[in-house]
Amino acid sequence: MTSSSAGTDAPRALITGVTGQDGSYLAELLLDLGYEVFGLVRRSSSPQTDRIAHLAGRLQLLRGDLLDQSSLSAAVAESRPQEIYNLAAQSFVPTSWQEPVLTAEFTGLGVTRLLEAARQHAPKARFYQASSSEQFGATKQSPQREDTPFWPRSPYGVAKAYAHWITVNYRESYGMYACCGLLFNHESPRRGAEFVTRKISLAAARIKLGLLDRLVLGNLEARRDWGFAGDYVRAMWLMLQQDSPKDFVIATGVTHSVREFCELAFAELDLDWRAFVHTDPKLARPAEIECLVGDASRARQELGWSPTVDFAGLVRQMVRADYEHLRLKQAPPSTPFDQLALRAR
Ligand code: NAP
Ligand code: F7E
Questions:
Q1: Does 6 map to a domain?
Q2: Does residue 303 sit within a domain?
Q3: With 151 labelled, which of 52, 170, 184, 337 sits at a CA distance of 20 to 30 A?
Q4: What is the Å distance from ligand 2's center to 168 Cα?
Q5: What is the band of 47 on the pLDDT scale with cuts at 50, 70, 90?
Q6: Dihedral in degrees, nearest 10, Cα atoms 334, 340, 344, 345
Q7: Whose CA is nearest to atom 44 of ligand 1?
């Protein structure tokens, strides 16, 4: 672990995108490892802090936006981090066709802004860039490894490819400890509701509870290499603890279709998915990636990393979490005390 240069012995880390799925798991991991953790949060009329609410008092939040150079510089100068994790991005692929310029600004150019802030205010900080399997897109090589050529198929993938190469370029130009994790899809009960896995787990739970009667999806045959987000943030941390910076593919090595995800998710609640799932061609993407599967051999050998949750375990965890959460929300108060509290409201 990199050591602190100031007052306390605790190493300091700055996480952008701390309010997102990965940011929340990474903040937990680093706090448990004894880090002082700073999280960058952008201004919103209604703060998006649900995923980190349980870390209040342990996590220090700084205001900043990937679009704004001075706020990034101020955040780096104030936190004086030994490690910077850049997880912030416009991360939903369909939105990248609706807002291609904004996606390029956030997900592409925003990385250059943060690298510049690091170069000027914390040049020795170790820098992690959240690269993506979307960069491989329609590549002919399978499974995808660190040296597989990129052929991105969405404005998001193109922006991430730029972000990847600018990070490599800062490593090569300035000798910065900067590395990219080429992460394949990773999910959890904290996954955003518009991504397909969470869309399915939430719908299955709602259908079971009688709150919904159908689920409409796009391409059921698309195949992805799905892992658990908690495993993947551990890989991010490991990448910054090596002797020299390198890029790594992080994946399970197993691919499944959206259809298979549906089958397992509905079966977990004793439902037959075929009775509820419909498709709508409007949800098809202008350019789809039919199949992705990663080869994480380098990470296994050099980082000692391997996933702990398999596909069936991931589906079960997500469906159970959504079902229990919705069931409890619906359940009438069970104790006299709860009844009183309800009447007082
Ligand atoms: P996520 O849940 O969508 O979180 C994205 C985060 O970025 C949120 O905290 C969001 O803040 C923040 N953000 C967006 N625009 C910003 C801006 N202009 N300035 C500052 N912050 C901004 O994403 P995730 O699933 O945790 O993924 C983390 C990173 O890994 C992303 O870069 C994603 O592209 C990449 N990635 C994800 C996967 C995956 O399968 N999850 C795979 C490969 C790579 P708000 O809460 O305010 O919106
Ligand atoms: O789609 C198909 C869809 O939106 C997965 C992001 O974290 O991982 C994520 O990107 C597949 C696609 O994730 C629906 O066409 C079918 O083939 O869950 P997704 P994604 O596009 O793979 C990568 C690695 C990232 O870096 C991204 O940030 O599922 N699909 N029907 C659907 N997808 C959605 N969202 N909704 C549907 O109804």
A1: no
A2: no
A3: 170
A4: 26
A5: confident
A6: -10
A7: 132
198 lines ligand 1 (CB under 6 A): no
**139 and 275 share a domain?**
no
Q: How confident is the model at residue 13 (pLDDT cuts 50, 70, 90)?
A: very high
| Domain, as residue range, for 331 | 191-225+254-292+310-339
Please report the atom of ligand 1 found closest to the CA of residue 160: 34
Ligand 2 pocket check for 130: Cβ under 6 Å: no
pLDDT exceeds cutoff 60 at 4: no
Task: Compute the average pLDDT of residues 222-235.
Answer: 98
Q: Extract the tokens encoding 134.
A: 């979307």
The answer to whether residue 322 is domain-embedded is yes
Q: What is the mean pLDDT of the chain?
A: 94
Quick one: what percent of the chain has pLDDT higher than 90? 92
Q: Does residue 143 have a cis bond before it (omega within 30 degrees)?
A: yes
| Residue 132 annotated in active site | yes
Q: Is the CB of 90 under 6 A from ligand 1?
A: yes
**CA-197 nearest atom, ligand 2:** 18
Atom of ligand 2 nearest to the CA of 223: 17
CB of 196 shorter than 6 A to ligand 2: yes
Domains: count for the chain: 2
Indicate if the alpha-carbon torsion angle 148, 149, 155, 160 is positive or negative: positive
Structural domain includes residue 5: no
Cα–Cα distance measured from residue 241 to residue 27, given in angstroms and rounded to the nearest whole number: 16
268 and 149 part of one domain:
no
User: 217 and 182: one domain?
Assistant: no
- Where do runs of H (alpha helix) occur along 228-344? 229-239, 258-268, 297-298, 311-330, 336-344
Q: Does the beta carbon of 71 lie inside 6 Å of ligand 1?
A: no
User: Does residue 131 carry a catalytic annotation?
Assistant: no
Is pLDDT of 52 > 70? yes
Of 195, 214, 204, the C-alpha closest to 327 is 204
